[in-house]
């Protein structure tokens, strides 16, 4: 076993997954936002909702395309770098990925074209239905991925036959209680990503003094949505912590920075874990709170990392700090959303430029929270790929060399950097132009068999240039 190849393979998968998750989390939230906008336009007839729909549809298309391109290599890596994982878990993971194709991808492929080119060609209700089906497809894709990953986190409904994991109970795999905690947690994170990006864009336009009607809608709807969803997200975050506490005690101890058994256990707010000395330096702790969080008890015994053999412990520093960054981002978003929603209800939000700047600069927070949440989950799962039954070192392709792993890692980094730069550049141009800019609006004459018709210019109607757009 080439340990350097193992490290490089882990870095490659971590890099590609981290890059990829940025776009699906964004597009899931935007798809839901587009559905709401189209429904509001259908019910109220307000032109501003139509203008915002066409504007965000362009950005959704870019994010969706980048997500598809960056996600393709995931399947290849299972074959090139993790062939043993594919061989052993293929009977479980293969069908789950197939279900994603037959449900999520089928919906997205069937209705995305209607979304882009069908407004003038289908009944109004069917266009809204198509928008909802695309949103449902993005959510279903997240569902099957979370079922797959949750099975690796806490495998159920299987038997080992001839060195492979064979499913024995699909209901237990798909309807695992862990899935129904982790999937809503991820779905809410995606909705919050969309909400904060929309709100940040509205704040940016307010600060620039442009697109006043549209920016007010984006700012208020984004903040109101976040203000409602964030407390629910915190609840599901706590429920996710409960499953970690019950099923992955070593990960839970690493997240808590708890080295030795404690009864009752304190909660370490911040510290510098020292794996060599098996202690936390400069720790700030709250007595008893650790037992309350872990077991909803004031006197429970909570296990420490020293209860596990060194080779069975996860790296402590990454899950410890990643978890605290995730929670910190969530609390900052909660404060901004609640205060912004309060000022919005008082009609004073547009006058508070300091808060507008804070909302504008907050757009990276949901992505940071998602990435650090995944770092906590995945690094904390080590040294297991399938928790408790398949080690990461045993899941790698046995004949993979350091040279091969290095080349593939460098190629992926270069290609992804190229894609990311141009994707971000074009998205920035769309955002900078705004809802009334020529880049953001699709002409009515655009047809799938006449793609260059999109170069004819924006909508000729000027309703969105006037206060009537409000």
Describe this structure as you would to a colleague.
- This protein is mainly α and 470 residues long.
- 68% of the residues lie in helices and 6% in strands.
- The protein contains 14 helices and six strands.
- It has helices at residues 3-44, 47-80, 83-117, 124-153, 170-174, 179-208, 212-247, 249-256, 289-295, 317-345, 353-361, 365-381, 392-395, 402-433; strands at residues 158-161, 164-167, 267-274, 279-286, 384-386, 390-391.
- The strands form three sheets. It has a two-stranded antiparallel sheet with strand order 1-2. Strands 3-4 form a two-stranded antiparallel ribbon.
- Helix 1 (3-44) packs antiparallel against helix 2 (47-80), helix 1 packs antiparallel against helix 4 (124-153) and helix 3 (83-117) runs antiparallel to helix 4 (124-153).
- The longest helix has 42 residues, at 3-44.
- The model is unreliable at 438-448 and 450-470 (pLDDT under 50).
């Amino acid at each position: 076993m080439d340990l350097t190849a193992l490290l490089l393979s882990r870095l490659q998968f971590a890099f590609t997954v981290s890059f990829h998750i940025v776009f699906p989390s964004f597009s899931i939230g935007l798809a839901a936002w587009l559905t709401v906008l189209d429904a509001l336009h259908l019910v109220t007839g307000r032109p501003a909702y139509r203008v915002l729909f066409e504007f965000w549809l362009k950005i959704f298309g870019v994010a969706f395309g980048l997500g598809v391109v960056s996600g393709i290599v995931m399947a290849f890596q299972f074959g090139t770098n993790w062939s043993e994982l594919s061989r052993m878990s293929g009977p479980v993971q293969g069908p789950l990925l197939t279900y994603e194709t037959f449900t999520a991808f089928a919906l997205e492929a069937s209705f995305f074209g209607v979304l882009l080119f069908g407004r003038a060609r289908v009944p109004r209700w069917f266009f809204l239905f198509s928008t909802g089906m695309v949103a449902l497809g993005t959510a279903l894709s997240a569902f099957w991925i979370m079922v797959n990953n949750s099975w690796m986190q806490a495998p159920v409904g299987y038997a080992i036959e001839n060195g492979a994991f064979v499913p024995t109970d699909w209901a237990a795999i798909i309807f695992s209680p862990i899935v129904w905690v982790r999937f809503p947690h991820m779905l809410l994170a995606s909705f919050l990503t969309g909400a904060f990006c929309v709100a940040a864009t509205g704040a940016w336009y307010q600060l620039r003094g442009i697109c006043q009607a549209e920016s007010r809608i984006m700012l208020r709807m984004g903040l109101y949505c976040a203000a409602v969803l964030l407390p629910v997200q915190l609840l599901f975050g706590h429920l996710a912590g409960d499953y970690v506490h019950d099923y992955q005690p070593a990960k839970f101890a690493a997240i808590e920075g708890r080295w030795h058994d404690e009864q009752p256990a304190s909660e370490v707010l911040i510290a510098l874990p020292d794996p060599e000395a098996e202690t936390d330096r400069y720790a700030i702790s709250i007595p008893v709170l650790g037992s309350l969080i872990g077991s909803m008890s004031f006197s429970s015994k909570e296990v420490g990392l020293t209860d596990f053999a060194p080779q069975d412990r996860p790296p402590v520093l990454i899950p410890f700090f990643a978890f605290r960054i995730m929670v910190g981002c969530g609390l900052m978003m909660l404060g901004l959303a609640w205060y912004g929603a309060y000022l919005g209800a008082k009609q004073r939000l547009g006058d508070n430029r300091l808060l507008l700047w804070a909302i504008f600069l907050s757009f990276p927070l949901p992505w940071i929270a998602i990435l650090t949440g995944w770092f906590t989950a995945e690094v904390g799962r080590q040294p297991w790929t399938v928790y408790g039954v398949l080690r990461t070192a045993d899941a790698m392709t046995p004949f993979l060399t350091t040279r091969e792993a290095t080349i593939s890692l460098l190629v992926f980094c270069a290609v992804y950097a190229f894609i990311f730069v141009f994707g971000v550049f074009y998205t920035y141009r769309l955002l900078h132009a705004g809802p009334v800019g020529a880049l953001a609006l699709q002409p009515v004459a655009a047809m799938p068999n006449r793609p260059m018709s999109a170069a004819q210019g924006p909508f000729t109607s000027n309703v969105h240039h006037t206060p009537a757009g409000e």
